[in-house]
Amino acid sequence: MTTISLSGTVDPVRALALKRQLTELCATDRPRIHIDLRAVDDLHLSGVNSIVRALVDARARAGDLTIAAPASGPVRRVLRLTGLEGTLES
Q: pTM to 2 decimals?
């Protein structure tokens, strides 16, 4: 499993770098990706889009993507509103 740890604000510039990294990881067979957002203060929509695309791509290749997020706060709320809360690790 590959873990990507992010912190601070995931703005459009950082989201583009994340998208590139996730695209590369999803190009492998059975990609298993874990994204740690526990230190992220603000998750821009472009970051959410990158994560959703990677989730779809990983599952299409018989892999998976999980997310670690804060127990509460704006990042957790964004994940809940976008339907990504189901990808959170237990």
A: 0.92
